[in-house]
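User: Let's play a game. I give you a shape written as tokens, and you guess the letters that built it. Ready? Here's round one.
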């Protein structure tokens, strides 16, 4: 049976070349699609046609200088965009546009009611990218563009973003820090890269109280996450009553992930997804767009995505 859960993926995402030995590599997506085909979940998903996002939508969250810089750097085949480990190849700018286009297509399908929810298996990831800065393997902030797109195209007033990637989504927080129409909530290992995301960062100006950071010590696992969701994230969603829920779905808080030290399992991701989906059914007709961020174990990542999808399809 075909579900009302969509899946965004394109072979071009594999062409974003980050160089030998880089953890954010094409094999991540390959491991996901291979696994979903093998267990025959692939055929139950609604596969979507996607296009590169028009640049006008990027300008809702990024500066023109940032877009020009990315375009130029990629055209030159510049390997590192930030003096660190955010790498890009000649094709990377176009592929980043396609990743944003994928999340916009997902947003269309969910806001139009054609699909209940969508998971976007995209790369490059986005939540570290700030208005003016590529960072942490991220070029464009996919989820931030989706939030503004839903607001401007579909008059969605309030958007909630849940970011359970093991790293704090500094870019997304930065973009919406003064904005009360976008509730940003993050669980992440702390202190840890990128060193933002303390409890005391709560938003500013009109946005004060609309950023919720829940730092986790190294070694925290499912119990701490269920508690954070039960006591803080789900009640905040119920109070805020968003028109759409977006998830920065990184799977690097898995215990087998090589980049971090939290202890979730694939079942944990299934449980957290069910909690969000049940709340979405109550507050926003079930509308969820979930977007892949991190997740670097090629065995834990596909199994975690499977558990996430099964909970979205239930
Ligand atoms: Zn991460």
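Assistant: Ready! My guess for every position:
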């Amino acid at each position: 049976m075909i579900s009302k859960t969509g899946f965004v993926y394109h072979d071009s995402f594999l062409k974003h070349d980050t160089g030998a030995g880089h953890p954010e590599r094409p094999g991540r997506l390959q491991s996901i699609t291979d696994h979903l085909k093998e267990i025959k979940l692939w055929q139950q998903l609604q596969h979507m046609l996607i296009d590169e996002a028009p640049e006008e939508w990027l300008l809702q969250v990024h500066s023109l200088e940032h877009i020009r810089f990315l375009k130029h750097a990629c055209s030159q085949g510049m390997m590192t965009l930030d003096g660190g480990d955010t790498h890009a190849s000649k094709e990377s700018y176009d592929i980043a546009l396609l990743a944003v286009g994928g999340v916009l297509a997902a947003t269309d399908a969910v806001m139009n009611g054609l699909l209940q929810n969508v998971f976007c298996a995209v790369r490059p990831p986005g939540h570290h990218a700030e208005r003016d800065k590529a960072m942490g393997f991220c070029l464009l902030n996919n989820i931030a563009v989706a939030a503004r797109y839903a607001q401007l195209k579909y008059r969605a007033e309030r958007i909630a973003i849940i970011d359970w990637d093991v790293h704090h989504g500094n870019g997304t927080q930065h973009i919406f820090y003064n904005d009360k129409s976008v509730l940003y909530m993050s669980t992440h290992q702390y202190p840890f890269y990128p060193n933002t995301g303390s409890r005391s960062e709560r938003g500013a100006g009109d946005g004060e109280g609309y950023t919720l950071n829940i730092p986790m010590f190294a070694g925290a696992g499912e119990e701490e996450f269920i508690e954070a969701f039960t006591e803080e994230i789900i009640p905040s969603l119920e109070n805020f009553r968003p028109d759409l829920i977006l998830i920065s779905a990184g799977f690097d808080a898995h215990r087998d992930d090589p980049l971090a030290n939290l202890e979730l399992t694939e079942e944990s991701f299934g449980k957290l997804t069910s909690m969000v989906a049940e709340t979405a059914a109550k507050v926003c007709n079930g509308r969820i767009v979930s977007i892949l961020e991190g997740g670097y174990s090629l065995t834990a990542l596909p199994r975690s995505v499977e558990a996430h999808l099964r909970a979205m399809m239930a």
